[in-house]
Amino acid sequence: MNNVIGHLINGEMVDTNVGDSNRTQDVFNPATGNAEKTVALASKQTVEQAISAAEAAFPQWRNTPVIKRARVMFRFKELLEKNADAICRLIGEEHGKISHDAAGELQRGIENVEYACGAPELLKGEHSKNVGPNIDSWSEFQPLGVVAGITPFNFPAMVPMWMFPLAIVCGNCFILKPSERDPSSTLLIAQLLKEAGLPDGVMNVVNGDKEAVDTLLSDDRVKAVSFVGSTPIAEYIYSTASANGKRCQALGGAKNHAIIMPDADMDNAVNQLLGAAFGSSGERCMALSVAVAVGDEAADSLVKKMRVAMKDLSIGAYDNASNDFGPVITQAHKEKVEGYITSAENQGAEIVVDGRQPVVKGYENGFFVGATLIDGVTPEMESYDAEIFGPVLQVMRVKTMEEAMQLINDHEYGNGTCIFTRDGEAARYFSDNIQVGMVGINVPLPVPVAYHSFGGWKRSLFGDLHAYGPDGVRFYTKRKTITQRWPSSGVREGASFAFV
After folding, report:
1. 267 and 246 share one domain
2. Beta strands in 299-421, from DSSP E residues, in sequence order
3. Which is the catalytic residue, given 88, 170, 248, 285?
4. Which residues is 419 bridged to in the sheet?
5. Residues in Cβ contact with 166 at an 8 Å cutoff, skipping those fewer than 6 apart
6. Per residue in 360-419, pLDDT tens?
7. Are residues 115 and 37 located together in one domain of the fold?
8. Which of 18, 154, 232, 425 is deepest in the core (most CB within 10 A)?
9. Given the DSSP bridges, would you call strands 372-375 and 350-353 parallel, antiparallel or unpaired?
10. What is the number of structural domains in the chain?
11. Element at 297 (helix H, strand E)
12. Which CATH number do you get for residue 93?
């Protein structure tokens, strides 16, 4: 087994914890089922050391001209592209994501770095001359200080880059706590940022579990926290951070529905659903996990075509680009996903394509779940309520578009949704009235590009500002408005007691 994966603190790799904590956790290759690395779980003292490094680096970094901060991001982008193969290999080894999927994830992360390169424009303030006699007023967007990000296993490259490039280019110093399940690609990316010229202490990475998270949430030197993960943890992060006076954005879970209208191009819908439901083994917060077919004719056609198309799907290890998707992240998660399939079957749904216990030649001990299609799902079923987070597509049958929309609006999550239709009037009505934050029209994964912002509604997001894009700039800065007067020489105004 390789050496322990450590932390990046004040520009240096640290493979042991401060204090008495020597806790570690295995890092598995989910395709083989073998523990191939271990990761150090940061002690409270280790996290505090990282916070101290960031706090010490902040005064100089915040006063670094924004154009120089942007130049670091330009160099960082080039290094990410140069080292793409190494980053994607680490994602594949620890997450199980197929090489082409890992490359797509990295590219979406790089696009956020490209957006951050525009900081000189993004941070330009507002100025008004002569708002009163000889009075000028302007607004500036100043950094918060030390900020933190807590990121999930399913996008170890992309999601951290939703956070730290913007936070850093806005003048903050950053503490990243990535998932302890697949930390290596995140750590390599942070080292590339140092290579790009970022001063020591501006970017720090601590690997850990709840002890590390709670330290970030309770330390008053940390001014803001960004989080992506499950809804129960998002709610905990948000409530704890807010109670400690921190700004917080916490993105939670999802149950994303696709409405299949009777007039939909069914072949196109099937092709789109294959990738949206089963890509990345369904371990995406934007994965389409429910297809709501309007009318039995549409439902029958969808199920028939999906059954045929799914026969050609291939699962396996990350390094075979002909595979469509790989394993899920852990043995426990494999059992959880398969448990939801079984519960749907026990509650009366039909398992049309059964992905439980697949045999993958050469990887018999891997954490694989095959593509699964379930028909006849109803709102009362356990599998419908839960975010399965696996390669499972459930089909629900309704009679009208209004009924389909009501299902979506009644669900506790409101992350993403889409409609497949040729009817512009139906599409417009859907987009205007659906209670979901990200909406697609014949687009199954309506993930906003880097210069927009990402976020759901209802219990898919805790906080007022979405991730990255314009909302990201606002999240990592605070507005200061300055009003200034330079009276003319020799002119003195009398006292004024009215608010004018």
Report:
1. no
2. 350-353, 372-375, 392-398, 413-414, 416-420
3. 285
4. 259, 441
5. 112, 115, 116, 468, 472, 473, 476
6. 999 999 999 999 999 999 999 999 999 999 999 999 999 999 999 999 999 999 999 999
7. yes
8. 154
9. antiparallel
10. 2
11. helix 296-310
12. 3.40.605.10
